[in-house]
């Protein structure tokens, strides 16, 4: 519940940062009614300048947004995303620091075995329980083997790490794309090698023919 509130608050900050620039630029673009009453010169329309009438509308009204505003908005968005990621990482590490605290219940996983029936794996303190959920909840067994408990907890922690570290998925995607790029290059390299070998063979045959022609020419002269 707490992380969802934090994420909602961060999204509100993103929206506020996005709209702040637009409101500020709009406020600077045209004076308010109070400013017009206090300083009428701000609201006077120039009528004596013929050149101002020939100016296009695009030049007379510059865009309220600039490249620097876009850069600031992107930077603020990236900062908020990094803060959300760091907060989730911190909450996960904090929950991992107190694994043996009494009264702490952690859901390790489960699977469905029928209509409205499932088998769930729950960690209660230092105990791992297997329960059946259906019309009623029943304790099926308790895992007492320490090696099996360590293996289950290791698999659970690895799954959580994969969910909180999208960089691993990015690395897998980059490796997959790199492998895809290497696959078509192998036939191309084989074709190039065969082509160069054929060129070398033709060059050797050409040199042999030239030598034979020279030998025939010298023999006829004699």
Automatic annotation (TrEMBL):
The keyword Plastid is assigned to this record: no
Main location: membrane
Keyword tags: Cell membrane, Cell projection, Cilium, Flagellum, Membrane, Signal, Transmembrane, Transmembrane helix
Coiled coil: none
Signal peptide: 1-27
Pfam families recorded: FliO
TM ranges: 70-92
Location of this chain's protein in the cell: Cell membrane
UniProt protein name: Flagella biosynthesis protein FliZ
